[in-house]
Write a structure and sequence with these properties.
Largest interface: A-B, 35 and 25 residues
Shape of chain A: globular
CATH superfamily of chain A: PhyR, sigma-like (SL) domain
Number of helices of chain B: 6
Strand content of chain A: under 5%
Distance between the termini of chain B: 156 Å
Oligomer: heterodimer
Order of helices and strands of chain B: HHHHHH
Strand content of chain B: under 5%
Structural class of chain B: mainly alpha
Order of helices and strands of chain A: HHHHHHH
Number of domains of chain A: 1
Radius of gyration of chain B: 56 Å
CATH topology of chain A: Butyryl-CoA Dehydrogenase, subunit A, domain 3
Radius of gyration of chain A: 18 Å
Shape of chain B: elongated
Number of helices of chain A: 7
Structural class of chain A: mainly alpha
Largest sheet of chain A: none
Number of strands of chain A: 0
Helix content of chain A: over 70%
Largest sheet of chain B: none
Distance between the termini of chain A: 64 Å
CATH architecture of chain A: Up-down Bundle
């Protein structure tokens, strides 16, 4: 009973400390959908609970990251959040009381939503998590070359989608 | 990493907004853990039931297979075994009796005729005369011997006298009362 309580305390402490970062990662992986991101993170944390005694002292965040990335990459086959890709990125929101950061985030999430799930996961893991290609491949469960291809194709597409947001140098 | 990639990484980091872990998240997480625990228990129970059912079916079918694996009987003995006629008399009752005598007669006919048959030439018991009959005459006499030539027995194929002699002695025997 005491071990169970210690397990729950350790798990709750980890979740409370890392919830915000993990939620943002999940949100980027699904292309900005808050509800979908919350479902994905809850599912990953439930899985973490059952393996918590084994990996509590090792790398629980890496485990959650892998679960999130693989679930997001698989989500295209499920089609259970109803993502509808469009040819053009939606127009930027009306300027008013919204700040520039919110506008930038909206453009980024809209552009990420245009990518196929595996390309999006590879780009997020490579540039947001700053993981090397080998760890990206391990997280996605694919060869290194495949992960590199997904990331490069995703970035190439984002260049076109975000050309007006990120000005090329020179 | 070029300028666009650096800007992309910066946008991803800067877009993070603070999202505290609230009590509703905790409650939902607990519910998810309980539901998953129930699902795992149900899956384990179904697996156990399937395992027990499979084991029962296996044990039910095992004795039949074991009995089927037993040998059917003794190994058939070779054809030259002396006990062969006694081991399988019934399967071919019509073939064995007919084949065995015919084969025996065929195999023993030659030697018997050659060794134990009556010699073509015979010597009379009294040694008075030895006649080597003509082959045609001998054959004729052997087939139809005289019904009562003499009192003493004589081999049927040993005519030792000429036909005239036989006739005279027969007349003498029949006439003599003593």
């Amino acid at each position: 009973m005491r071990m169970e309580q210690a397990r729950a305390d350790g798990f709750d402490g980890f979740v409370a400390a890392r919830w915000s970062a993990l939620f943002h990662l999940a949100r980027l992986l699904v292309g900005g959908d808050r509800h979908r991101a919350e479902d994905l993170l809850q599912e990953a944390l439930v899985k973490l609970w059952f393996v918590w005694p084994k990996i509590a002292d090792e790398a629980p965040e890496a485990y959650v990251r892998t679960v999130l990335a693989r679930a997001a990459a698989r989500s295209a086959r499920r089609r259970w959040w109803g993502e509808n890709p469009v040819a053009q990125v939606p127009e930027r929101p009306e300027d008013g009381d919204v700040s520039a950061s919110v506008v930038e985030r909206s453009r980024l999430e809209a552009a990420l939503a245009q990518l196929p799930p595996r390309q999006r996961a590879a780009v997020v893991l490579r540039y947001y998590q700053d993981l090397p290609e080998k760890q990206v491949a391990e997280a996605l469960g694919c060869p290194v070359g495949t992960a590199r291809s997904h990331a490069s194709r995703g970035v190439a597409r984002l260049r076109r989608l975000l050309a007006d947001v990120i000005e090329p140098v020179g | 990493m070029d300028h666009f990639e650096r800007e992309l990484a910066r946008m991803m980091r800067d877009s993070q907004e603070h999202a505290p872990f609230e009590s509703q998240h905790q409650v939902r997480l607990r519910d998810g853990v309980r539901a998953r625990r129930r699902a795992r228990a149900a899956r384990r129970a179904v697996g156990s039931v399937l395992a027990v059912a499979g084991l029962g079916i296996g044990l039910f079918l095992l004795p039949r297979d074991h009995g089927r694996d037993q040998p059917q009987g003794p190994v058939p003995r070779p054809m030259t075994s002396p006990s062969y006629p006694y081991t399988t008399p019934s399967p071919t009752p019509d073939v064995s009796p007919s084949e065995t005598p015919s084969s025996t007669a065929t195999n023993t006919a030659g030697p018997d005729e050659e060794t134990s048959g009556p010699p073509p030439s015979a010597t009379s018991t009294d040694g008075s005369a030895t006649v080597t009959p003509d082959p045609t005459t001998t054959t004729t006499k052997a087939v139809t011997p005289p019904p009562s030539a003499t009192n003493r027995p004589s081999p049927p194929v040993s005519p030792t006298t000429t036909p005239s002699t036989v006739e005279s002695s027969a007349l003498e025997g029949s006439a003599d009362p003593g």
